[in-house]
Each structure stands twice: as structure tokens, then as C-alpha cells.
Amino acid sequence: MRNIHNGLLYNTLVQNPPVTLYISDGFLVKVDNRDITKFHRNKVDLLTDTDANENYIYNLPPPLHGYDACIKGYADAVVKKCHIGLIQSLNRNVDKSGYEVSALSQQGSSYAAYKAFRSGNTEWITAGTTTNFWIKIKCLQAVRVWKFVLTGRRNDSPEQIHNWRFEGSNDDSDWTVLRNENSFEVSLAAHQFNVENKTNSYQYYRIFVLEAHGPNPGLSHVQIFVYSD
């Protein structure tokens, strides 16, 4: 059937002559005197289970409402947000999983950069640096981030970052600012930040800190959430 005329166009492989239908209040499809489908101006009611008998609907228009049907290709192409953090718990700065973490400053191995990406009671802190420092991670491949989570130093420490940026890069040299917070103090709570970036993927991500309360500011948790490209 082709040319169901009321602003919607459907094509099927049923081998019947084309029919054009003009409707005002809707029309009812019957098969063997049984109600099958009722079409209205703004919706379609399926009145019984549908047996396609190896025929397929194609060329469906893009859905406009939550109840509209769509083809598999459309559904597969819809951008989806992953709600599970991308980075697993790491065990070293150059982890065997393939992730690489580094920082401009870290206070020995006890407070190494990877400990901001490690589960448990760990944290990364600087060795006395309070301005213009960073912590970054190299992902396994370029990914698009839609959200990230930061947690400050543990034990209610006042040594927290408060003027910082979240940035992305693909060459570890040219950085794009994805979020800028010039007066947000990252305390012990888990703080979630959305990223307005729906097009660009990056392999490197970093927190660049312009100012922090000293003498040894840092973070106890960093996690990123990506689109399922």
C-alpha cells in the first residue's frame, strides 16, 4: 500500500494497487471483517496483534512524538548517553588497561595522579602547587563527554580547587575549553557537571586549575560519562 494521504506517507510490500485515502475523522482497516487498525489525524490505533507475514514497512517519516514508530536505522543513529562512568578503577599512572594519567605536580607515589581515578579512600594532591596546574587522562580512543564528576580532597580538607576549567584535546597540545568554573569550590561531595558538546570527540581530557586553596590542593575522584558513538 502507498500514499496514505494525510501528511504521512507509508510504503509496504503488499502487492495491491495504490490507494489514496482522504480522511476527516479517520478510517478503519478491516481484514476478514475484523477490525485491524484505525487511523486518526494525529495517531494510529492498533486493534489487534499484527502479523506482517514477511512484509515490511519502510520509509517511515522521522518520529515527532514519543509514541511514533520509527525504523531500526533511525533508532540506532539516535545519540545515547551512557550513565555508567567510562574509566575503570586505575592502579598506576600508566595503567595496563591502556589509560594514562599525569599531573603537573603530585606529592610522591602516595598521592599520585591516578589515585583520583581509583576506587577507595585515595586522592591526588600536588606537592605545594596552588596555581596553573593540571591533571589529565588519555583515553583509549577519542570519546564525546556529556558529563563529568569531581570530588575534592578527603577529610573535609580546605585545600580545594575553586577556579578551574574542563578541557579536551586530541594532540595533548591544543586544548578546547568545555566548561569554565571560576568560582566553584570542589568540596568532598560528588559534583556533577554537564558539558555542552554534542559534536567533538577528544582523546585527552584534563582539569586545568588556575587557583586553589593550599598548600596541597587536589581531587579524590574524577570520572567522565560519554555518548555511545
Question: How is this fold's topology laid out?
Answer:
Layout: E1 4-5, E2 11-12, E3 21-22, E4 27-31, E5 34-39, E6 44-46, E7 57-58, H1 72-77, E8 100-103, E9 124-125, E10 131-143, E11 145-151, E12 161-169, E13 176-181, E14 190-194, E15 202-212, E16 218-219, E17 221-226
Parallel strand pairs: 1-3
Antiparallel strand pairs: 2-7, 4-5, 5-6, 8-10, 9-16, 10-15, 11-14, 11-17, 12-13, 12-15
Overview of the structural elements:
- This protein has 229 residues and is mostly beta strands.
- The protein has two domains: 4-77, no CATH class; 100-226, Galactose-binding domain-like (Jelly Rolls, Sandwich), CATH 2.60.120.
- Helix content is 3%, strand content 38%.
- The chain contains one helix and 17 strands.
- It has a five-stranded antiparallel sheet with strand order 8-10-15-12-13, with no helix packed on it. A three-stranded antiparallel sheet has the order 4-5-6, with no helix packed on it. A three-stranded antiparallel sheet has the order 14-11-17, with no helix packed on it.
- A hairpin with a 6-residue loop joins β12 (161-169) and β13 (176-181).
